Amino acid sequence: MSAADGTAGQTTDETADGVDKPWGEVTPEAARKLLVAAVEAFAERGYHATTTRDIAGRAGMSPAALYIHYKTKEELLHRISRIGHDKALKILQAAADGSGTAAERLDGAVRSFVRWHAERHTTARVVQYELDALSEEHRTEIVELRRRSDAAVRRILNDGVKAGEFDVPDVPGTTLAVLSLCIDVARWFNAQGRRTPDEVGALYADLVLRMVTAQK
Amino acid sequence: MSAADGTAGQTTDETADGVDKPWGEVTPEAARKLLVAAVEAFAERGYHATTTRDIAGRAGMSPAALYIHYKTKEELLHRISRIGHDKALKILQAAADGSGTAAERLDGAVRSFVRWHAERHTTARVVQYELDALSEEHRTEIVELRRRSDAAVRRILNDGVKAGEFDVPDVPGTTLAVLSLCIDVARWFNAQGRRTPDEVGALYADLVLRMVTAQK
DNA sequence: GCAGGCTCTAAGCGCTTGCTCACCTTCGGG
DNA sequence: CCCGAAGGTGAGCAAGCGCTTAGAGCCTGC
Lengths: 216, 216
Prior knowledge:
2 copies of one chain form a homodimer. Chain A is an all-alpha fold. Chain A has 10 helices and no strands.
């Protein structure tokens, strides 16, 4: 087992005492409450179907309070998207930079990336499916982060091919397929469903390894 | 090769003279023009970000014209979603009902399903990603069609396991993954990109077969 | 040749939207 | 003990929304 991200392969936001606390970097408290409310609302109804009154209401504040902490509704989406993409990229880069064979690193990458999309499917849904609602400038910034996520996975595949572990005729296409498979978890995953995030991660890691492993 | 939809396993909407003509079943002409305009607008901006004025404008008509042919904007989405899901289900059932080994049928299913999502990615984007905008009643109807699509793919996998062709420990989970992989093509496929729908179909069919084929 | 139905438009209604503004409260520092 | 900054509210503005209505144009059948 690799320990690429420092503390025993964790993939959730945790403070030193082990308490799970996403969006901990957003301050002050009121700004975080608004942002968390926005994530829920955007994930449930989509960005365009969500009103600023709904967001403020979920946060227990008046509509005007939103504009003390954020210039526009789109800035809220951008902050969510930015933080989420940073996290996603970190997960993939940690796996790509880890030690072990290419197969072990690919297993870790898919496992943790899928687990994040399942555990944080509310956030992930916004991050992965509301890109089009961003302004031109913000979207460009986010697309660059996605390009780097793609590069991290492609690097693992290339390493595996070079080492003879993998048989992948079309590395860019397969990279796309692997990421696509993981991302789509955010669309269908249901917390009330039968599978836990860990189970989905294990299943998907197995399926992806079969896709790329050289037949003996 | 099966002939479930009449003429030699085709996956696009064609008239007898071979001309490609989707939405041919929508009449009269003005209603079809409005529907095609709605598909484009919904795919580009999303259902909620699209205005009835935009749809009518793209169709070269006044905003009020829309309400002669459709009761509400949501009815337009429902018609699109219904026709699209019928088509998707037909593609998968034709493949599942076809002759040949399970591997051949799975190859055909993925190939044609992916090709449809790529060729008709505008339509597919609306069909696959705007479900939440449907009314309760309409969504229930559509979800039933999706359940049947799922059943068609699961049947192929079960057949393959029974015949010893496939090694699939988790058939429902793998069914979900296969469909998820194909569906997500609608999200990322770009007509200006490097790959043709046929190429993506071939790549994906290969990847899926590797996921399920028993190792020798 | 005109009655009646169908298709379409110009105008606009009632409402909701993202966002603003004048004002109120709270609170640490001189 | 008052002060000014920071965080919050109620009311509301301009714009845009889905949808309706009154009536014009144009076919078709008798």
